[in-house]
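User: New here, any thoughts?
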Amino acid sequence: MHLLISLLASAFIAGAPLPPWQEGCLDIHAINSGRGECTFFILPDGTTMLVDAGEFVPATQKYPFVPQKPHEGVRPYEVYVRYIKHFMPAASRGALDYAVITHYHIDHTGKQEKDMVPDPERGYVLTGISGVESEIPIRRLVDRAWPRFEESLLENSSKNIDFYPAFVRYACRHDGMKAEAMEVGSRKQLRLRHHPCRYRNFSIFNYAASGIIWDGSKKTDAYEGQKMRENGASCCFLLSYGDFDYYTGGDAGGNSPVEVPVARAIGRPIEALKANHHLSYYTMKDETMRILQPEVIVTQGFTVRDIQPDYTIVDRILSDELYPGRKYMYFTNLGQQQLEAHKDVYSRAAGIGGHVVIRVMPGGKEYFVYLLDDTDFEYHIISVDGPFKCK
């Protein structure tokens, strides 16, 4: 049966729809709205999880961004909702089992614009994660500090997220949602909810949140009394399924004291990761990459400036300087001027523009990567790479 699923996964060609998730598979969907990070997971038993749901509009001359996807006539949170509903398995019963907000920045939570009118029933604006929850119930929300939201806000935390505490309190009071802070050092907080006994080789381990890191044996304070910044306060975790490992760490890049210690704590090569902080300068430092050695790297970006991603980092990762073997880099967005200015670098990317889907086959020994069309709501395949064999 597993061989049949693998053969079917490799048979789909450009223009075909992505085949539905099947039990035993692990799906990781980087959803592209062009206005924030958002990753949707379907775990092997049908448990569902959303990591971040950013939203900010409009673009400015100071911070020019790529075009919204599929177009400006639809809100980013509506893009996430439609995508999730399209792919959500029946086992989830129309609700997200988990939502994880890595940190309190607008491209991960949503933004309360000045002209937004609060929803009359809920009393807060619908944007990002609050907009998603208004249409898809969330059973459990995990962020870096709840319920210590106000006291945990940092000087450089996002402005315009006043909706967030109101949203969490309302959803807990009226929609049955539970909210809590990420438990660093735990592999029990984010777990399979439907048939865990069938997949004992699956786990999610929480490595960091709010500057606290699991170093392999105990919790440590990465900042040790120094000033903590919001990016470095991101939730970081490693998902493992059989021989497959996937890491995501929000914006905890190399410009924080979190990235390298977490990589050291993981301490082994992994298959795939979401690039830290949109591959901005200082991220994915040499030591991090030499330890983790990912074959697949997914970057969710939205600016047309070279700072995110930084092409010098892309070039360095794609070289053989850090670790051997081919690297498959996928970008949900890149600006036309970035592509034209650095053709020699980005021509080596595996995929540019679209939703990126990692599909791990039952048992966790091999996986495929699909790039899906983001210009409409049909989600047709642009390309497929694989099978990749897990280490």
Notes: The first helix runs from residue 2 to 11.
